[in-house]
Amino acid sequence: MATNYDPTRREVSTWWVYLLSGALLLFLGIKTFQYPGVTYLSLSLWFAAVIFVNGVSGILFAFTNRASFGAWFWMLVLGLGEAVLGFYLLAVPIAAVGTLMLFVGWWLLFRSFVTISKAFVLQQSGYTGWGWVLAAGIGGGLLAGLVLANPVDGAAGTSLYLTLNLLALGITSCTLAFRLHNARPEPAV
Is 0.70 surpassed by the pTM of this model? Predict the structure, then answer.
């Protein structure tokens, strides 16, 4: 009996990657809210670490799913880009402080586009609730645009936009992780 192979089954087995990324994003969102004055000065190292870990997670996800996930190459490219950016920010924190919000704004915008594309993958795979992932990706993109529009403000406005974006992306990533973990796709016939 022939069955169609569902590429999301492999993704379901690596749901924890999204949970790890979401937890880190939520942690950073809470920290930016708690310490807005210190945020701009201290976050270069925090973001560098999160971007680096997120990149390494993306690389691991791409390699573990290369046989079953059609977009694995783009996940690899995203992971490599994030790992390189994170490493740079860790290696040169003083240079990164001046451009931190621009780096973070573009990174959050790119992550929002990835979230939007994941929503369409979920839709094509027949998962319910994909619209919430799409809405979060669009909302994250709008908030990333606010970060990019006001990088010089630094403290109050940008920290608030950054906090909202991190929390939105963190909640979305954790929600996606739990949905994938609890998903039981019906075998195709």
Answer: no
